[in-house]
TrEMBL record:
Pfam families: MFS_1. Residues 17-470 form the Major facilitator superfamily (MFS) profile domain. The keyword Membrane applies. The chain crosses the membrane at residues 15-39, 51-71, 83-102, 108-129, 141-162, 168-190, 202-222, 234-251, 271-294, 306-325, 337-357, 363-390, 411-432, 444-467. GO terms for cellular component: plasma membrane. This is Drug resistance transporter, EmrB/QacA subfamily. One of its GO terms (molecular function) is transmembrane transporter activity. It is a multi-pass membrane protein. The keyword rRNA-binding does not apply. Keywords: Cell membrane, Membrane, Transmembrane, Transmembrane helix, Transport. It comes from Jiangella alba. CDD domains: MFS_MMR_MDR_like. It is found in: Cell membrane.
Amino acid sequence: MSLDTEKTQVTGRRWWTLAVVSAAQLLVVLDGTIVNIALPSAQESLGMADGGRHWVITAYALTFGGLLLIGGRVSGVLGHRRAFITGLLGFAAASVLGGAAGSPELLFGARALQGAFAALLAPAGLSLLATTFTGSDRGRAFGVFAAVGAAGSAVGLIAGGLLTEYAGWRWCLYVNAPIALLAALGAALVPAGRAIPDRGRLDVGGALLSLAGFAALVYGFARAESLGWGSVQVWTLLAGGLGLLAAFVVVESRVARPLLPMHVLRHRVRAAAFVAVTLLFVAMFGFYLFMSYYTQTVLGYSPAQAGLTLIVNSAAAVVGSVLVAGRLYGRGRPAALIVPGLLAAAAGTLLLTQLRADTSHVLALYLLPAMALTGLGLGCVLSPTAGMATEGMRGHDVGAASAAYNAAQQVGAALGTALLNTVAAAATAAFAGPGAAAAVVHGYTAALTVGGVILLAAAALTALLLGSHRHAPSAPS
């Protein structure tokens, strides 16, 4: 075999790795939103009580967020490709189980299983990319990966609307299985790499503290939606979660083989990536929630029409990730991509604060520009932050950094949904003007104002942390 032929095959396998990992990333992100639109139909079909329906969303978020750091370590021990395939097959089986559920309890359990396998799948996929791509190709690879992640939430709402309206809510779960199985078959062509020896005992204390801490935070945010921020239960969960995570940091700084080495978090550039992506998800998950509600309850769109309005957001996210960030990442300061991206998302969010119940030409003047700006911002932020979170990591640190990056997204999404939904509900209740629709829209615009301010704060913090750094962090010695 000639050197050129061998080089072509290696390059082809690298880009095949990107395609397979991107398909898996679509599954993980899409599943965070695809069930949202299907939830009313599932509730009616299974006779689900109003007080328990949130478990369809919460069960997935709890196991996904709680097990991510453990999944990152397991990925290194098994080998990233083996862990990746295991996660895909488990995710497919859990999706079929959920689609066939005949009771609420079985659906809740299936969603928890999906989250558990996603917690293995997500860090394994990001680790495969981080160890496969270097140099100029790294920016393009992470651009495509980020485009899938940025568009995935919107695609989930689109797919959820179409499937619920034309095929039934169960297909919002069944659709995962063929995608996961095809990706698992494709993973056979991904270079295997090697498992990383893990001599010594597992950091059991760190594993339990991280699981309990993240689960308490995510569940506390979820309960804040229904119980309100004045609830003793909510604050007990949040305080307990923060206390457990503080204890986790103490344990990790003292054990010989930590689940999450502290140097992964201590570098300013990597910390900037975590801050930017966490606050981005706080604002954007609220944005998607209110766009879904506004288009359906105020404009009267069907679930399918509501989902299709997000196509512009998905297209803009692809442009931002691939054509902008994918080409420019690594050529200058990371702040030159991330800060403008956060400002663009803030502009799109704040534009919608001008909405009123009787706004005319709402699609052309407000929705489409806002979708374009937020999508572009998402793409410009997710691509460089994913690269920065894993740049220079070696051994188990790759899985740990990948897991921490995904955990930051999950915590941000849970906090954003709960916080902004509570702001909207309080503003709606306090509205003194006439008309129920006007009160609802006032609540949405109040929450979007908070989301926009959070994005502006994220831009300022990120600029401060990144300063004049031109490159992502290097590997620790």
